[in-house]
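User: Hey, my collaborator sent me this sequence without any context and asked if I could get a structure. I don't really work with proteins. Can you help?
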Amino acid sequence: MTAGKPAKTPMPAATAPAAAAAEGGRPVYFQSGQLEVRLAESPHELDAAQELRFRVFYDEMSAKPTAAMAASRRDVDSFDPHCDHLLLLDVQDPARPKVVATYRLLRRERATAAGGFYTASEYAIEPLLALPGEILELGRSCVDAAFRTRAVMTLIWRGIAHYVLHHKIDLMFGCASLPGIDPRALQVELSYLHHFHLAPPELRVRALPERYVPMAILPREAIDQRRALASLPPLVKGYLRLGGFIGDGAVVDEQFNTTDVCVVVKTDLVTDKYFKHFTRESEAE
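Assistant: No problem. I've predicted the 3D structure and written it out in structure-token form, which is a compact way to encode the shape of the chain:
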């Protein structure tokens, strides 16, 4: 999700990701024109994803890298080796495929090995951990500036849908970012999310007490729902269209100049329309 800004502890070098080949096949693989969607399958591909993340998070969004990150121009952290990394590759030149989008995927078992989920640094996620079945954290979402189109986002979501089906994911979650660190400037967006998309009690994660920022700044009746929805970042709108809920409280991250919300999506609540939209070609593949 725009979830997943860089964590603070870098790793010295790329490590081979938890590749699909180790699980008996590719849970995600399809092409659309010159674009290919699949998981990273080598340290080189993970390195390319980390380089893209650095360009987006640090060069474009002005996040503050550690000295090691700045020297390597890579966004890396201790979670990366435990994750699957969804890639969108431009394969117009098959000999030199280029990573143009990436999304980090971390399942429960792998999170245990990693020491937990990244989201737990901002939210108390015990309600999600207590649920039976497989859960999936989404994070480190970014797209090369030249490929930021609705069609590309559709391909990314379709890839996630394939992954969810393959691993029988029951619930997805992660932090999503709104630009800026002034909650008053985001009062319409935050208030709208709180009043109209607050998670039910059994799924309602809450921002950590020391980081909690109230979201209900404006009263419910003061919100123009249509305009508020239109003002949200595309990624947040995408989660809402998939039936996503929002946790209680926002978190301001001054280092990355963002205000974060926690998004939770139960896969059995995804509307038929969007589920079919993102997986309609599965049988053909």
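In plain terms: Confidence is low (pLDDT under 50) at residues 6-15, 19-24, 281-285. You can pass these tokens on to your collaborator as they are.
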